[in-house]
Amino acid sequence: MPPRIAGRDVGTVVRRLGRRLSPPPQVVDWSLGVGVAVEVVSGLASFTVGTPGGAWLFWLHSVVGLSLVVLLGAKLWRVRRRLATRATWDRATPLSILQAVVTLAALGTGTAWVAGYNVQVGFWTTLNVHVGLGLALVALVAVHLAARFHSPADIDPGRRAALGTGAALVWGALTWRASEAVAGARDATSRFTGSRPTGELYDTDTEGGAFPVTSWVADDPDPVDREAWTLTVTGAVDDDLTLDLAAVDPVSGGSDASEGARDDDGEAATLTATLDCTSGWYTVQEWRGRQVGDLLAAAGVADDARYVRFVSVTGYRWSLPLAEARDALLATSVGDDRLSHGHGGPARLVAPGRRGFQWVKWVERVEVRRHGDPAQWLVTLLSGFD
Ligand SMILES: Nc1nc2c(c(=O)[nH]1)N[C@H]1C(S)=C(S)[C@@H](COP(=O)(O)O)O[C@H]1N2
Ligand SMILES: [Mo]
User: Which of 361, 363, 364 to mutate to test the pocket of ligand 1 (most atoms within 8 A of CB)?
Assistant: First the structure.
């Protein structure tokens, strides 16, 4: 005889409890939809967060993400019979199953990453895989909605709805803390961005310094000729400047580094800053080069200028607000080494508090501008493709 509780068999008790506690179907479905939307938006937005003030976005992403486990569980429980019987499948069912699998995989990889695990797949960290799955989910949800959309009008915002979604969020918060505790116990330290020290993830014996050489998407230029290279400072300035390497790197930029070429207003600047890549690694390095504010002062900035755009030999580019740009560095060396080709030599942008993809490598032009540059988002994705 199967085990019994209060005279009923366990299966019946669990089913009753499930029915009692689970929020109404429309609430589950809409919470799932809203939850996934929150995840996609907060996940993408988190790519731009590099200062602790934005840490809440990562918390939100973790808690809402883990609360989806409960909602997805409730949903799968509800449709279990329909899924188990092939005769009740319709055209959209296989895609729905795929969607559930991708959602669980996205949740699993995200949680594994937070808990300090990484299964490297070629260049891809588990965090990269998580992002890839999340983006795939966007497409799947769109298809799913087209097939199964039902209006939110029939949602009954009652007590059971509030309790159910509240419980899911509490579960999300608890399991998030638990996965962080696992990371702590395993000594897998991470920044608030979720990024981990390079040494934990990679063989640190990488080119020109103990951190990997990475491209955002497809940039892979030929090495830049250091003798022929010039830096142009242009746009909303009094005088366009064209500088050779010796002028940008007053200490080691000359063809003969021992000369220590130094021009009148050119002081070498050093900056300790954290390069934090959205692939999930970070490294703290001492960068040396020329302060951007120094270059801008030499060119003379127009009164109504508001942004500074840094443009790579590949066309890749990023803009910073003027004040922030002044504090940034055009680095020509890192640690004790001249900046290698892979790391963006002869000169790369070092933008403290910004994420790695914004640290433009192989900079050849600095443009002072009156407007921001929304197209930069697209350009960073497309540059490097011929
Ligand atoms: N021109 C250019 N700059 C770039 C990139 C790129 O693809 N092209 N990748 C960015 C990304 S995603 C990161 S994380 C850093 C990596 O710098 P590193 O290769 O020195 O580690 O450079 C950034 N600068
Ligand atoms: Mo990156």
Answer: 361
